[in-house]
Fold these 3 entries.
Entry 1:
Amino acid sequence: MASTYTPLGVELMATGENAGTWGTKTNTNLNIVEQISGGYIAKSIAGGAQTTALSVSDGSTGAELAHRMIEFTGSITGNQIVTIPLDVQNFYFLRNSTSGAYTVQFKYASGSGDTFTFSATDKGDQIIFATANDGTNPDIDTMAFGSGDGDVTLTGTQTLTNKTLTSPAIGTKISDTNGNELINLTATGSAVNEFTLANAATGNGPILSATGETNVDINLNPKGTGTLKSGTAAVKIAGKESIWIPAVAMYPTTANGAEAAQTELTAGQPELKSLDFDKDSDQFAQFAIAFPKSWNEGTVTFQPFFTANTTNTGSAKFLVAGVAVANDGPIDAAFGTAQGTAIGFSGTANDLMVGNESAAITIAGSPAAGEQVFFNIFRDVSADNLTADAKLLGIKLFFTTDAANDA
């Protein structure tokens, strides 16, 4: 009786056969078993889309499929299929070392059984088991390693589920499931401050904290003209603020005071409550503000709003000076240096004119939180040429905050 062969090429010698050569054949069989147990082969599958059959070599160590580890190599320019015969039962370490963004599928030569496929971007490793569990449609099963079932490889693309990462070092970005940028990361070599995230139990909100040094800001910077929002509403942040101070909140000074006036234009339409500043001499008015605690106690600026009952197109110039008074301090104090802005009139009676923002006004008295600031406003007729009373309707006063609230 002649010898027969296993699907992996091991020779099964018949009783009494191969006299004188039995030892050689046995040694060959042992070599085949050794390469099945731990042998390695690099198999080039270079080229366009194609099917490559791994060869079997009966009674010889040359069988490609009779190796434990098979590394696929070569530059591929199309999707690849690698097959083994229907009766092969073995497990393999597969490595995809090809270059080219195409899939590599490992399967039985025919049938509709399960297969394993390296994705176009997966240049990793996988353990598979060729089951030979059906004579027509055998399955290729994947084992828990590499891209097939979830273990991480250096170059593969995997999905991690229920994995604990302790102090992972992330490069430049975190992407979403579509590969689009979700969070970009910029590393600072000498960093000592960072964000700390904490979740929360029922009824409490999660916390995003700045940690590191004793006092650490959190900077949230919209891009360009973007706005920092919570939901659809803009978040109020420290910075430049404004207060509207109408003329009715001001009072003429005892000496050279402007005239408080009320003017009806057309019945049932807006009336003017104004302080009228004379065209021939400097006249004055005052007002006072207790600024919010969030004020940075720095300089302020203002914009005057005025009108005139004239067709003259000259300009009116208003100036403002201030002094801060502390608790238990003397109110009888000198104002600081006045700053102002000139506004040309339109030439149409009772038009509203809004002046440009003034230069920075330094408030006298070394202002501090909780103090009252007195302001002096006047028309400098030596620096303007409007030939009519300038009817001041109010000013918009600008100041800067450096705290989120007044707590």
Entry 2:
Amino acid sequence: MSRSTLLSDAIGEYQLHMEARGLEPRTIKNNLQPVRRGLTEWGNIQCGSITGQHIDRLFRKAQWGASTRNLYLGSLRGFFTWCRREGHIAKDFDPTSGWSAMRTPRRDRMRLDVGEFPGLLDACRHPRDRFVCALGLYTFLRGGEIASLRVADLDLSRFELTIWRHKTKEADILPVCQELAEEAERWLAWYRLDTNRIPLDPNWFLVPAKRPNRTRQNPLTHRIEVVPDELAPLRPERQMCHPYRAVQRALAILGYETAGEGEHTLRRSGARALFDTLREQGYDGALMRVSSFLGHKDTRITERYIGLSLERTKRNEQFGGKPMFARPEVADVIMLEGKG
């Protein structure tokens, strides 16, 4: 390949390369985000002319936060590694050389207490949003996994939910707990009523898209405004977009800040609540059990995800207000005093 390849052409080829590898659309979009930002900032220059100064200018102007900066730095390095392999830039040159990831302080992400689960569900204005939140709380699924569910995937006679984990490309069958079964019965009854279809088509999406909101012209400003229709009819053959917005709508009604929150908020909340419940019941394999629900291969990931350090927890439970070392028996103390 030629080092005179234009950046826009390289971006197009890189996208096709990632699609051929089977990467998820969201992953592809994230990987291309900083490169496309660079295209806007630098212009459609030749890949071989990109230098470290271009990278400096991009990060200086964008002023991304530490986490976003680290994510985009990794994405740029992936792009330039591919460029070197394809001959778009010199094999011994990396424009990101000298850059390193910033340390980001760990912070606890929002998690709802199990006692807040009913309030969150009641805050949902549309029955579909309520079931989306119920799935997040009681199955710990990611948003994309929820959106891709079909009616046939839910078997209430066996209390099972068949899922596809997009991230790990694996199928799984999750148990449907009593709380979720009750929510499912409630949702399916409304689904049948809304579509006037009994039984529901098994190929329909379990939580589908809705009809678009209505619009009207404001008589004062003459601007076209969206009129939210909370009970808008469903579109069963169309997949729901942006499940996180259903979560944000409910959180906003409860008075929570919604920026950055969504399906993972429910995923963390449900997983942590289950862990705490299993620990209180004395179950030693609590972390492993929660990991299996989340689809994690490493329990250390689960430990960080649900916001705890298991060893620290065990340490504090073992020694908080208790003797650290075994004390000698009273008789032994008296014997020692007599010898003295």
Entry 3:
Amino acid sequence: MKNAPSFSEVNSFFSNTDPKIVWAKAVDIIKLISPAYDFTLAQTSFDDVVRMFRGKYDGYCPIKTPYHNLHHTMDVFLCAVRLMHGVHLSGTKLADKELTLIMMAALMHDIGYAQRSGEETGTGAQYTLTHVGRGIKFMKGYVFKQDFPPDLTGPLEFIIRCTDPAENIPDINFPDERTLLLGQLVCSADLTGQMADRTYLEKLLFLYLEFEEAHFGNYQSIHDMLSKTQAFYEKIQSKLEVDLGGIYTKLNFHFIDRYGVDKNYYLESIEKNITYLTKITKQSEEMHLAMLKRGGIVENSETLLTKHN
């Protein structure tokens, strides 16, 4: 009989700081979907994206955006792998090429924040409005440079576009229903993967600083962003259910198969975050940051926060 995950195991679902551990978990899950899957393209892409974030990819400096960092990409990547396992178990079988497309898109969905060596200014957050297009451009060049099958680029472009908050997914002219499905899957993983992070509320500080650098949004302060996140979550809920077809619910199948528990731990974590956010925003602004203690994020960012208040 399978055992339900322990409290520490559940926390580990949303704390993907070590790429080696993330990759090992992904391999185990993918083998459940396709035992004979060829990992060559996915592993090459994974390794190169990690190198890109760390500043070890030729021609690029480290990616410095504080919110859209390597941890964020690892969270989204592993959520996408778990979700495609759930989708597969639910009866929508995924071909090996589709597994590759999902993984590559999840890995490269924020690669557009990268800056070329010698051209870096700021953190890269100034590309907030253009990072998806920049990422697609990088992906196309990467597929060509690596001599990957050229027919990957078309679907990858559509899938990555789905993660752009500025895109209205029903307005995207997908070539077929399968590409739409893959786009919905990756976008769902992007949204649920980041909002389920145990330190999501603390990391809103970083997101606020990115928006400030990009001159994006109408947030007057981090307190204003915290207050408006509840309404943002309600919009995300609607998007997950309508535009993204409720595909995030397929995560239940993954957890049933792995642990024998019919739960969506991602959704539970998101709801806990939002419940605590509601509690925070009922307090005075002076109390907000004092109530955000996880990960030492607020303490380590006091200087940056002071600069933007």
